[in-house]
Specification:
The chain has 29 residues and is mostly helical. It has one domain (1-29). 90% of the residues lie in helices and 0% in strands. The longest helix is centred in the first third of the chain and has 13 residues, at 2-14.
Amino acid sequence: MHVKVLNYLIMEVGKGTKSTQVAIQEQSL
């Protein structure tokens, strides 16, 4: 479980702008 959290954080930091797209996708849901 911790691994998934770390991978998620790494992706968030590595793809700063990507997090914005994720937020938009969550709103569309």
